[in-house]
Design goal:
With 418 residues, this protein is α+β, with helices and mostly antiparallel strands. It is built from 8 helices and 18 strands. It starts with 5 loop residues before the first helix and ends in a 13-residue tail after the last strand.
């Protein structure tokens, strides 16, 4: 984000990370059972507020009345500044090492969109919907797959037959660990994953301060920073048993912002110093460097999110009503009819990667389709007990993706395991 002023970067990162914290509070359940808050949710999840934020900002710019005020509040910036910041944010994110960001806008041939609004979008992002439903749906699915290297194969929510405008973003991020983990078998002795053979990861370092403990109002949280080679780190967060997962993730965001102190590993007391963390003195026959032993597990998670089910978090309450109006986008009365996100994340011995596609569809208020009654999700996750994670850009401390892990991968033997 080198083209921005320091104040602009800080303000935008703070706004995006604040949306991450608010979403985490309603998306995840507790550390013990990870019950989710929304319909169709499961305990493990992955989501990206960074992928939603620019879409809300562009909508805020074109909205009026209550929808404009609610969207601006969710974005954390005045509506008149939101579109310019969103464009800058997307361009800066796409320049980050290990990150690719894209925006797409598709409008029906009969819908006239104001040039003043489309001019604020990134260049070469505006396409047309032909009106042939199957053809348009295949084109949107192909865009999602191409922008995420096939990790997300379909546009979230599909394509409503009454959709006149679709605004979508795609984010991918990848980082390889500076020091890979050792892949091994893990057998947790207690907790929800006890008696299961998991795909374990371990490594030892002399850098004690890669781990630390935060004493939050909701309880202690252990944070481990795993350093990537492209300026992107992944922070693993383990709270006390039964601690709400949203609080665990929010604590990680607060540590990044400097609102919450983290006692580093080199200053922790001996004994049980934090959740999943023990400090001890070991006698040696010769001088030795301090050691930090890390054990975790690999995970691979996929999740779907209906943003309208949490309309208050995203400022979409008035935007989805028949009374909504977006005169800055079109002279036609439009309302948000669908807003969904598909996200994946994988943590392995070699690195971390995530892919996210978010789509917001709009149509005339008189032609809205009912939402599907059920949502199916396939989730794969991991650790010695449920934990959270934040994928963070090192320099700006922007949270690119966040999540909660509840279902670890099983250990699979290879031909060399004999």
């Amino acid at each position: 984000m080198t083209t921005w002023t320091r104040g602009t970067v800080d303000e935008t990162v703070e706004a995006v990370n604040a949306l991450t914290a608010r979403w985490a509070a309603v998306t995840t359940g507790t550390a013990g059972d990870a019950r989710a808050a929304g319909p169709g949710d499961t305990g493990g999840t992955v989501f990206s507020a960074a992928a939603v934020w620019p879409l809300l900002a562009f909508l805020a710019d074109g909205a009026s009345g209550p929808a404009r005020a609610e969207l601006a509040e969710a974005v954390g910036l005045p509506a008149e500044r939101a579109a310019d910041r969103a464009r800058e944010f997307l361009a800066a994110a796409d320049r980050l090492r290990g990150v690719d960001a894209a925006l797409g806008l598709w409008t029906h041939r009969r819908l006239k969109v104001r040039e003043e609004w489309t001019a604020k979008l990134p260049p070469r992002t505006h396409g047309k919907l032909t009106g042939w439903h199957a053809l348009d749906r295949r084109a949107l699915d192909a865009w999602a797959a191409e922008c995420t290297d096939g990790r997300v194969t379909r546009m979230p929510g599909g394509l409503s037959r009454h959709a006149e405008l679709v605004l979508a973003s795609a984010f991918t991020l990848a980082t390889r660990w500076i020091r890979p983990f050792t892949a091994e078998s893990a057998l947790p002795r207690k907790g929800p994953w006890s008696a299961r053979q998991l795909a374990g990861l371990s490594r030892t370092t002399s850098l004690l301060d890669r781990v630390g403990v935060a004493d939050t109002p909701a309880g202690h949280v252990t944070g481990l920073r795993v350093v990537g080679d492209r300026g992107i780190d992944v922070h693993l967060l383990l709270g006390e048993p039964g601690m709400p997962a949203g609080r665990v993730l929010a604590a990680g965001v607060d540590v990044l912002a400097g609102r919450q102190a983290l006692v580093p590993g080199s200053r922790l007391p001996q004994g049980e110093a934090g959740p999943g963390l023990t400090v001890e003195s070991v006698r040696n026959w010769y001088p030795a460097r301090p050691k930090l032993h890390v054990r975790t597990v690999a995970f691979d998670i996929a999740a779907e999110h209906d943003l309208t089910a949490r309309a208050d978090v995203f400022g979409l309450r008035s935007a989805t009503r028949a009374s909504a109006d977006f005169p800055g986008i079109s002279g036609r009365r439009l309302a948000v009819t669908r807003a969904r996100q598909s996200a994946t994340a994988a943590f392995t011995d070699q690195g971390f990667e995530a892919a996210v596609v978010t789509a917001i569809a709009m149509g005339e208020t008189s032609a809205r389709e009912p939402e599907p009654k059920y949502t199916n999700r396939e989730v794969h996750a991991c650790f010695h007990r449920p934990f959270g994670f934040l994928a963070v850009h090192q320099a700006s401390r922007l949270v690119l993706a966040a999540g909660w892990v509840t279902d670890p991968q099983p250990y699979r033997e290879t031909e060399m395991d004999w």
